[in-house]
Every structure is written in C-alpha cells, then in structure tokens.
Fold each of these.
Amino acid sequence: MLLASEEHQIAAILESPSAPLLANRLMIALEEEKKRREKFYHDIDDDMKVEFINGEIIVHSPVKKEHTDATGFLYHLLDIYVRIHALGYVGYEKVLTALTRNDYEPDVVFFGVEKATHFKKGHWKYPAPDFVVEVLSDGTEHRDRGIKFNDYAAHGVAEYWIIDPQDETIEQYFLEGEVYKLHLKLSEGQIRSKVVEGFAIEVKAVFEEELNLAELRRILEK
C-alpha cells in the first residue's frame, strides 16, 4: 500500500511529458540495484554487521558500551519472557530483516508465533517483525529516525521502540494506519508493550545492571 505522500509523487511524475522516460530510467536503476543486492547476500558473513539500504551497503562501526549494555539488557528480559510464555521468537543484532527493497539488522526484534513457526535451523533471512527496537548511536540515529522509521511502518511493524542510551530514554511508537504515532517517551517508570502480550518492565532496567537483574528475577518467578 502506498503512503499518501508517495501517491502525490507518482501523480506529479504522471503530469510530466517525460513520464515514460523517467519510468524506464527507474526500472533500469532498480534492476541494477537488484543485482547489487544479490551480490550483497552472497558476500556477507556471520562476522559482519551490515545492511543494504536504498542500494548502498552500510557497514556498521563498533558501538559504545552503553549501546551494547542497553541492547543486551533489553534482549535478555524480552527473550526470557517470550520463551517462558511461548509467544514467538526474539533476536538481536544479526537478524537480517529483508523488506521489499532494504535489508536491516535491527538491535532487537520480536516475531509472534504465526511468523516464528516458519523459522527452522539454517534460517538467515527474516520477514518484517511484529516489534522492532533500535538503539541509537552517533552513526545510525538519522537512519533509525528516517528511512527505517518509515520502512518499518510501511511494512506493518506494529510497535517500534527507539532507545537513547546516552540520555537513557525509551520512545514507544505504535502504528496507526500508515504511520507511527509517539505513544510515550520515558526516562523512568514502567513501559508496557502492546504487541508482546503482558511484557512490562521498568525503563531503568534497560540501562542499569542491578535493576535489570531484579526485573529478570521477577520475570522468572512469575
């Protein structure tokens, strides 16, 4: 389904006498991009954190400790909770998410049972998740708030969290129609997922080890 803004772009092109030429150039460019994408799939390996975005290969630099901590702390809480309650599958960092045009490796992803039942041993390319988390870094923030924000929404990812490990905040977005709407932004208190049924944690547990362990014990004792 096209967004309203995309419908306007198409309408503007169709008003141009050069529309057939533009369409032909676009098809040639997309065919060349498709070949680069196939080569990308062939060349990547397990040691690389790399994405394919609008025809460009993005190789990620090492991240700061606070980024790694936030990703790991949330992943462990979410993964344990989901496995205990048999709600689906949780992955982190190296889960290649193949959308219509682009391939991302989000920091944390959740797939409900309907999708997760299709994942078998050797699986390496995944569909759009039901819930995505991106942890900001200096080199990725513009994509996390830009192309990824729009692409996840366009592919029906129902819930999106953006974590700022520097400011220690979590932004929670829910998909409403074709776009994300900010539900809340918290630096403390409890955050509750709408997609992962019953999953609710203290925000500080994503940033502080002792609180993370306390939340982990609470989840395990339920």
Note: The chain has a mean pLDDT of 93.
Amino acid sequence: MSAQNRRFPAEWEKQQGILLCFPHSGRDWPGKYEAIKWDFVEFIKKVSLFEQVFLIVADQKQQNGVTSLLEAAHINLKKVSFIVHRTNRSWMRDSGPILVYNDGKREALNFNFNGWAKYKNYQLDRHVPAKVAEFLKVPLTQVMYKGKPVILEGGAIDVNGKGTLLTSEECLMDPRIQVRNPGFTKADYEAVFKEYLGVTNVIWLGDGIEGDDTHGHIDDLCRFVNEDTIVTVVESDPSSHNYAPLQDNLRRLENSKLETGRKPKIVQLPMPQKLEFENLSLPASYANFLILNNCILVPVFNDPNDRHALNIIADCFPDREIIPINAIDLIWGFGTLHCLSQQIPE
C-alpha cells in the first residue's frame, strides 16, 4: 500500500470512544489496588459523559464485579462496551492498537508491544490489538519494516494529523537501554512513520523526564494542542534533574518546523513539584492529559502548579471543558490518564 493512503488523525479529531483496561491485579500499583479501582471508576465515569468507553476486562467474573462498581457510581452502562481479554497490564496507549485512516477507512495497526523492551511478561498484552480490531470490526495490519516487525508504543509519538510527528531520542534512539528496534536509525523510523502514519515531518526531542519507566515517552513531555501549537513541560527549579533536559527540548522545539515549513507556536507548561515515594522519583506530568470530544481530562497532583497548568491547558482548548482528575494514586504506576487510554477515531 502506498504511504499516501494512510493518515494518523490528531487526538482532537472526532472520536468514537476511548479504549481502557480495568486492572485485574495490583502489580502496577503495589499496595494501592483498592484505591486504584475507584480511580478507574471515576476515569470511566468522566469519559462516559462525552463518548463511548471500550473497556477490557480479564473475564466474566471481573466484568460482573466492575459492572457493580460502575452501577454504584451511577455510570450509564450503555456508554460502556466490555471486551473480554486477559492482559498483563492496563497501559492501553502502548499495548493497544493505533487506529489510522487508510483511504478514509479505519485500520488498526499492531506495533508488536514488547513490554517497553524492559519487562518479560507481555505475551497477553501482545494480543490486545487483534482483540480490539475484531471487536470494532476493522482490519488489523502488522507493522513491518525490511521484513521485520517494528516495535513502537503509542506513548512514544504525538501527531498534529497534518503530517508532523513528535518523538524523543531517548526513547527510540538509545543504543543501550530499552532498545525497541536494534540498529534502527532516524531514517528507518521516519520511513515507518511515513508508510504507516502518513507522517512527512518528524520533530525529535532529546530526553524524557526523571522516573519515566518507558525511557522517554513523548506524552509526558510535549503534545500538539492544534495543528500548529505545541505545549511542552518546563522545570523552573535549576537544581532539578529535569531542568536541563526540558530546557534542551524547549530549544529544539523553538528551532523546529512544521510540515508547512512554518515554526510551531510553543506554549510552556509547568512541572509539578517532585513526587517521591521511598527511593523512587515518580514521573508526574501535566502533559499526560487526554483529549476527548468536547473535553480535556487533566491529571493533577495536589500541587500548587495544578491551577496554573489547568489554566494554560484551558487557554489551549477554549471550546472544550477542562476536567481535573486526581492522579496521586495513578502515578504510583508510573503513568496517568494518557498512558492508560487509547482514542478510537470515529
């Protein structure tokens, strides 16, 4: 198929729904599973007010239990479609399919999830794209390059739907740590992005934020908010581990160009104060917001910068409701709203 046929739509384009996966074990949130269940119920409730929730559950027993929780929270069950499939984890941004338009029709892409090239237990997650594609009745395409499967997580990329993609060198180009595609060059990735996502222009950022288990996912760093505007997180404390890499990313963005040849408009978003638990630094970021039809869900962290971040994001999306979601428990799993979800374009 020619590259020109495919287009990865921007997240703000019309969506049919959001893919989520209800956690069936607390392994990603040690000691917090009871709280996490109710955090998920609240997340589902907010999404269901705006669009359909496609909710993966491990089995019929879990579906029955989750249904009881949703009923207790007065969630309209007609807005929730259950997909029964056992998973290793719940991070649908990365293990779920990426849906693109191919000649105007939807196509699900399987980017061969491998546990972020870090964890051994991902075999169940590998089947999520096929299961979701079957449920949605859309064709599934295995992403290949030079005869080999390509590994890429949805959290590693962000697009404006017009031909420009954001990603980070730390995630895709580090030759030693969490190597997804050994030997890949930038030109190799850009060829894959062009063929499968319709991307003609790639903006490469440098390093991700401290504590990021994925080793540099872009959805904790910067996001398109419209076709020519990018919000990017900056750290105001020069003593912070994040200060220098985020300043470097800001400079890269200021020197970047869109597919039109014009410079993007850059909006700066603050970082919350450092969140630590025991000896871990948690990757809390306001950039992990989720765009829905008519609404933006924004992770907040009981932090003085919550209000500033919400105001900045509200200015970026003047025609959408801005709803904060407390992510203090969720971030203990090293990700929040965007990491846990995957949009299903209409």
Note: The CA atoms of residues 294 and 318 lie 10 Å apart.
Amino acid sequence: MRKIISKFIIIFYFLFGLNSLAQFKFTGEVTDNFIDAKAYLKMIDDYKKSSVFITENIILEAEIDASGRFQFNGDFLPKENRLYKIYIDKCNSNITDSNHLLNDCEDSSYIIFIANNTDEIHFPLNSFSQMFCDLEYSRKQNVALYKIDSIRENLLGNLQDSKSDAQRKLIYFNYFKKIQEYGSSLDEPLAELYTYSLYSDQKSFSRELYLEDLKKSEYYDNLLKKLEKNYANSSYTSQYKNDLIKDQYPLLKEEDSSKIIILTLTILLLISILINYVFYKKRSLKKHNLNYKEVLSPQEQKVFELMNQKLPNKEIADVLFISLSTVKTHINNIYSKLSISSRKEINDYF
C-alpha cells in the first residue's frame, strides 16, 4: 500500500509539481527616493533600442511597497532566454507621458538582464545601498548585464584627462576591445549581442572602430554561429544578421554573392529545361498532327506500315519485291519527312 502511495506522489509531482515550478519571479529593492515610484517589466524585442522606454513593450507593472521592494512573477514568458528590462522612475505616474517616450526622465534607474520563464532573480541593494549593482539568482544560466555600466565608466575614466586625439583614440580602442571581450567572457550569445549593440550603434564613438574591425575579424561570424545554434528561431538572430549585412560584413557579402550565383545558375538551368520541354512538346505535337498518308509516297507508306509491324529491312524488301537498298532509301525519306530518328517513334503515328 505504501509503495502505491509513493508512486502516486511521484506521478502527482511530475504532473503538477513541475508545472507549478515553471514560472518566473523577478524581485528587487530600491533606495528611499524611489519608494513612491512604480516598477515596469518590459521585454526587449529590438536590442538596438534597449535603452529606450517603449510603452508597448511593457508586460507587467508593480507597485513599490513601503519597505522599498517590488516583485514581478507569472508563468507567461517564453521558455528560451530573452533580454528583459526593469525600469523605475518618479517622473509621472502616467507612463505615456512624453518624458518616458523621450527617455528624458532624470530621476530613473533600470537594469537589463537575460532570463526565461523559469528564472528567479533578486536585485538587492549592494553594500553601498546602491540599486541594480548586485544580483542573486537561482540558476547560473541567468546572466545580468549590471556590470557593463561600471566597466564602461572605468574604461572611459581617463577620457576627461586626455590631451590629444591620439590619447582619445587609444581610450576608444581600449573601450571597444574590452567591452567585446567582456561580452565573450559571459559565455552567453545574448550577452555578447548586447555588448555588440553598445559599440556598433550609429551614435557610438566606437562605431568607426567597429566598422574597421568588421572588415578583417571573424568574431562577428562566430557570434552569428553561436546565435544560430542557441537561438535559431529568435528575432535577435535575424536582426543581428541583417545588421551585419547592412554594415557590409565581408563574410556575409561573400555568402550572399555565392547564393546569387547559385540562384542565377539555377534559374538559367530551369529556363533551359523549360525551353527544351516546350520545343519537345511542339515537335511531338507536330509529329502527332502529321498524317503520314499525306506526306509519304504510296511506296513509302507501305514501307512505313511494315516497319510498324516490326519487320526487319530484308523482310520488307521481300514483301514488296524491291531491293534492300531501295528499302533503306525509303526509310531515310520517311525519317526526313516525318522528323523521326528511330523505329521507336513509329508507334506514335498508329
């Protein structure tokens, strides 16, 4: 009896327990000046617009309680990892306010992170009581990009003290490479994609360095392969590939050129097949519409009819009391007049 009960409990757990665990929970703590604010959870569809507050992408809204805590939870997020953003501000309780749409709210803070429907992540205040500078998570697959801002600040810290274009160029180059290396070190293609968006953006000072690197580096092709392997059906992957094509990435240009050549050859082959097919059909129709009795002489008609009876040339000569060479002459004339090339085509006329 105990064994039966144990089995029932195991089955019940697998049927209902796992489903109950399949939900997300994102929580956090805010500083005192944000206690009266609201928190918004949004899904980032376009990685290029991750810093912009787009109201259409908000999926949940949460009140911040008196202790400065907020929580988002549910079970409706995609199963695969995606980029998410928690945004908090005190500009206006109306999220359609122009300050939000223009991303111009000074009294605001946000965190961008990677998660899926089964993840639990907590964003506590750090030891200096700062927001979104630390995190606790339930799975190692979670990757938060909270460190990226501090890394950028450290890399650009000497920019104000730089005294020449050469110094600034060196700082920019160091920034570009370190950000790229940081993305790779996270071992998560979406994290690399996010860092890629920072240095490849049209408004980024590292844009020129990126375009120059694009001409000679296989890094971007390797990132594309990682995305195609882990996120084959994701809009992020197709967006990234399109961005590389727009930026004229040589490896993809060569791939596109090869595809164009193959496509052109395929089209030419199909056209050739179609032309030959049409020619063959016309020729066949012409043959079928010909009345051999109107085209051939009386003697040729006899030879033709005997050929249809599968008689060899010598027997045709014996039946018609003519020489073998005369039979061959008649056959050549028949082939020429009826546009046929062998005895196999004779049956088409009968």
Note: The beta strands are 24-29, 38-43, 58-63, 69-74, 82-89, 108-115, 120-123, 136-137, 143-144.
Amino acid sequence: MEILRFSMNDPADYHLPEVKIDPRCWNNGMVVRMPNHLGDAVMAIPALCALKKIIPKYCGLFVVAPNMYRLFYAALPEVDGFLGLSAAHANWSFREIGELKKLRLGVGVLFNNSPRDVIAMRLAGVRSLYGSSARGRFLLLTDSFRFKHQQIPGRRAGEHLTSRYLAMAMALGAPAWDGTLPEFRFLRDGDENKNRIHAWCEHPDMLLLGPGAAYGDAKCYDSMNYNRIARWWISRGGVAVVAGSKSEAGTGREVCAGLPENKCVNLCGQTDLQELMQLMRYSRFMVCNDSGIMHLGAVLGKPGIAIFGSTDPTATGPISAAWSCVSERIDCSPCFKHVCPHGHKKCMQQVKVEDIIELIEKAVAVNNKTVN
C-alpha cells in the first residue's frame, strides 16, 4: 500500500509569461469562471484567493459557476458576488449574459477550458480575458496560457492541478500561495437543522464517510469495506454519517446495513451544500473516495483519508497536509476511466480495510496530541 500526502510542484515551473493587466480595464472588478465540478473548484480556491489580492480596492471579485454551488461560494469571504449558471455544459442564456453585463466587470479569468464561456463573457462586455489556450480559445482571449496534457494512463503526473490554477494567477501578478486555507463562514447555525443533522453534529466522535464519486464506479471503494470501517468506529464509541448525492443513496444504505440506527445514518441526497459543510465542520475524521466531498472536507481543514485507484493522487489529491491518500500501484492504474475497463477494480480491491483502520487510529492519535 502506498501512502501519499499533499505535495505541490512550484507554479513557477510552468514558465508562463507575465501579463500586465491594464489599470483602465478593471471597471467594477474581476469575474472568475470556476470549474464545473466541485472537486476541481476546490483545487482552484487557492488561486481564486490569490487573485483577490491583486484587485483594486474599489473593485470586487465575482464568481461564475453552476448554480448548485451558490452556497459554497457564499461561504467564501473573498467572493463579493456570484452568478449561477442553470446549465453547466451549455451556452449561457440571454438572462445570464445580461446579469454579467450589468455588473460592468472589466477583467475575466477562466479556470475551465470551454470556448462558450469566453464568448459569453465577450458578449457581456468583459474587456480583458485570460485563461488556458485549450480548444482554440486563444483567438478570443486577451492573453492565453499553454499547458501540456496532464492525464497519461498508467503514469502519475506528479503535478497537482492546484499548481496550474496558481500558475495562471501568478502570471497575472498574484502572490505565491503560502499554503493557508480560507476561513469559510457558515451561514446557518446547526440549531436550524435539528431534524436532519443537529444530533449528529453534537456527537464529539463523528466519522464522516463519502463512499460515492460522481465521476464513476471505478473511483469507488467497495461499500462493504466502508461498512466494516463504520462498524469498527462505532465499536470504539463513535457514530458514523454517510454523505453523498441522491444517486448514491443506495450505496449509503449498503454502508449502513446491519448497523444500529442511532449510531449510523445515511444522509445521501438529504443535505444541501451548507448542511454538508456543517457536518464536515463537526466531524472528527473523514474517509472518502476521490470525490468532491473529499476535496471539500480537506479545504475545510478536517483530517481524513482518501482512497485512490483509477485516478492520480499526485494530480488531484486533497489540498491538505491533514489528509493521506492511499492507493495500490498496479500496471493499469491510473486509467482515468469511469468504469474499470478490465472489470476487476484491482486497484481498489487490493486496499485492505485493516490498513485503513490502522491509518485512522494513528491519525486520530496524532490529532489528539495536537489538540491537547
């Protein structure tokens, strides 16, 4: 079993050209098109916070992202405004373009690779646009940045995606990241959510499990293994909460199967993003697949273990030294497939539950010493 912790290559290694933003272009501020997937968006947070530092005092920082993540960005003090897109992978509506136009923002940064977002921002009157040159977008951008393809089947990149986002921010004049994670503001008190999460948040020894992954089954550790982890945690006096999307509710039921209802609960599809963040806030420890829940827990500062198989922990591991990435190296991993092409998922099956439990015990003991 291989155990990896967050390691980021120097963003300066990309040797991106420095770009001088014309002071006359700012208008009311900057708009940043964040990635569509929650995990990718979290990995772009350090770069987003760095960009905030170069914006003139009279300007604001605005985010464009799928509307489902409104509450996530509302919890970030660095974000001054949010424009939600009703369809992440479609053309902007006239209303959405009109809303951005009303803000009169002069500078735009794109952390995704879609040409349609560049076109929409141009139509909204954003004067200076910066982003990667992917898919021919360089023709529409004020300045563009070229990156090599990162995902190579069977080979680890050794380059964390966070470094790419930071490289773009630094090319625009933002300072280097010092490793500090943002302080999220929680918009709700747990008292408002007594019917779903309050009692679980009150427990001092809550384990939060994320057994799903929107990307596909190839990323997922067996639900019965999560069941064994939950059973062990409960046996030592704790409680286990299973979190995920509505489509992962069946997996959540499998994880909770045979466990006491007052000690283990399946909340997949039953929490909004703010409630999920509240659960993370009060959790003692987390165990997840490579997923948005993993990334969100890490950026919120919670300790945990991430189980990797079909994807690359050196490229998309959680951005926190408090997390460990566990994987088994086999010839075909990482394959970056949604479903295991061989049908065996050996990269996941060879990760032993006993090893995961031993890692949890060690991590919790270290965390106890740090707190005390």
Note: The longest strand covers residues 60-66.
